[in-house]
Write a structure and sequence with these properties.
It comes from mine drainage metagenome. The chain has 144 residues and is mainly α. The chain contains five helices and no strands. It has one domain: Up-down Bundle (Growth Hormone, Chain: A). 17% of the residues are buried.
Length: 144
C-alpha cells in the first residue's frame, strides 16, 4: 500500500506492460529461489522481493485493466478483473492445501513443491501477459 503511488507513477512513466513483465519475472525468480537457499535471512530478503513484486503487480495491473476498459463498459471489465483476483486468491488456498496434503508439510518436499508451483504460476502469468500484449487496444479480444 505504501508503494502504490510510486508504482503508479513508474507505470505512467515507463509503461504498464513493461512493469508488469518486470515484476512478474522478479516475483517468479524470488519465489523459485526460496527452496534453493533455505536460510531465514534469505527467506526475508527473497520474501521482500516477492512482496514488492506483488504490490507492484496489483497496482499496475488494476491501472492497466482500467486503461483497457471501454468507457461505456468500464464497470463490467473492472468486475471481471476483481472476480479474477478474488477467485485466484480463493483458489490458491485450496490448491496449495492440496499440494501440502499430497507432498506433506516437510520443508524439503511439501513446501519446496508449493514454492516451485507458485513460481510456475508466475511464469504462466508471464506467458499470458506476453500473449495479451497485442490486444491492449481492444479489450474485447481478451474474452474471445
Amino acid at each position: 500500500a505504501i508503494s502504490a503511488g510510486l508504482f503508479g507513477s513508474l507505470s505512467d512513466r515507463f509503461g504498464r506492460w513493461k512493469l508488469l513483465i518486470l515484476f512478474t519475472i522478479v516475483g517468479g525468480l524470488a519465489t523459485s529461489l526460496i527452496p534453493l537457499i533455505p536460510t531465514f535471512t534469505n527467506f526475508l530478503i527473497l520474501g521482500s522481493f516477492i512482496g514488492i513484486s506483488y504490490g507492484a503487480y496489483f497496482t499496475v495491473s488494476k491501472a492497466l485493466a482500467s486503461d483497457m476498459s471501454p468507457p461505456e463498459d468500464a464497470g463490467k471489465y473492472m468486475a471481471y478483473y476483481n472476480i479474477a483476483v478474488g477467485g485466484s486468491s480463493g483458489f490458491s488456498a485450496l490448491f496449495y492445501g492440496i499440494i501440502l496434503e499430497i507432498f506433506g508439510t516437510s520443508y524439503r518436499i511439501g513446501f519446496t513443491a508449493m514454492f516451485e508451483m507458485s513460481a510456475a504460476f508466475y511464469f504462466l502469468g508471464l506467458l499470458l501477459l506476453y500473449t495479451m500484449r497485442g490486444s491492449h487496444r481492444d479489450p474485447t479480444k481478451l474474452l474471445t
